[in-house]
Each structure stands twice: as C-alpha cells, then as structure tokens.
Amino acid sequence: MRQADEVDGKRVILGTALLSCRDACLSLLRSPFHLDDYWSRRVEFHKVRRKCNDDVQRGSAALDENRYEDFLRPVLKRLTVLRNQVAHGCVTYGPSSRGFEGLEDGLKVLRALVPAFHSLAEKRGAQLHGDLRWDPLPYPRLESGRHRQIGSAG
C-alpha cells in the first residue's frame, strides 16, 4: 500500500485520512472497552489500562513518523471489537450502555478511512495489480469453485 499512496515521496491519501480522524482513533485506542483483553476475565484491569496507554503512545509516535500501517493495525482491531459490540447490542442498548462515545469515534474513523481505501484501490490499484497478493476468500459465494459442494462430506 505504501507505494500506491506516495506522491513525490509523501504519503497523501492515507495520511490525510488518518490525520483527519486522529483524535477519534486515539480515543478508540485509549478506551478499554474496545480492547478484546477487557472482555477476558483472566486479564486484570490494570493490565488492560496499561495496554491501552501503550497503544496510544505507540500509535501517536507511529503517526508522527508516518508509519501509517503501524498506527492502523491496533485501530482496525478496535474497530473489529466495536463492530462485534454493535452486532451483539452492547453499545446500542441506549445511553446506559455508555457505548455511544465509542460508536461516534468509530463512525468518524470509518467516514475518513473508507473513502481513502476506496480512493487508493480505484486510483492506484491498477499500478499494484501485479504486486497484490490476496488471501483466498474465507466465505466464497455459493456458485464459486471454492465453495464446498452441498451435500458432500468434504
């Protein structure tokens, strides 16, 4: 992705998007509720809090140093946890669920990143077509050659 986003040696599309949602990203990283470890009863809360603080510090440094992938990795993990919370209703129950702040942060991040990813794919994807290596789809469509045969044991 790095070369596809560079113009005159500067990262343009992704960097601009991340800077526009920096505060929301850091808020997601800071919140223990969006870290999978928080939901594990085996992890002590002070360790969860420390992990969040470390992620904020590392994320800020990575963003300042234009290491966008290093910044994005934990943010996208937090968005996955937030997605699971939305799907299971724990942030959408109402104000008492105290999940609206995270939901608003997640939406700010997605509003910035989705168009950036789309732009990168649309404008620069052809340049990388030969270099891209995608993993096989984990859930292939029914009529795909990768979909298991219905009624078969394998």
Written account of the structure:
- This protein is mainly α and 154 residues long.
- It has one domain.
- The chain is 56% helix and 3% strand.
- The protein contains five helices and two strands; from the N terminus they run ββααααα.
- The chain has helices at residues 13-20, 22-30, 45-64, 68-88, 100-128, and strands at residues 6-7, 10-11.
- The protein has a two-stranded antiparallel ribbon.
- It is globular.
- The mean pLDDT is 83.
Describe the SSE topology.
Layout: E1 6-7, E2 10-11, H1 13-20, H2 22-30, H3 45-64, H4 68-88, H5 100-128
Antiparallel strand pairs: 1-2
Helix pairs in contact: 1-5, 2-3, 2-4, 2-5, 3-4
Radius of gyration computed on alpha carbons: 19 Å
Main-sheet strand order equals: 1-2
User: Which term fits the overall shape?
Assistant: globular
**Termini separation:** 36 Å
Strand content: under 5%
Spell out the helices and strands N to C.
EEHHHHH
- Overall SS class: mainly alpha
Largest sheet: 2 strands, antiparallel
Averaging pLDDT over every residue, what do you get?
83
By DSSP, the count of extended strands is: 2
Structural domain tally: 1
Number of H- or I-type helical stretches = 5
Please give the share of residues in helix.
55-70%
Low-confidence stretches: none
Task: Describe the structure in brief.
The chain has 154 residues and is mostly helical. The relative contact order is 0.14. It contains five helices and two strands.
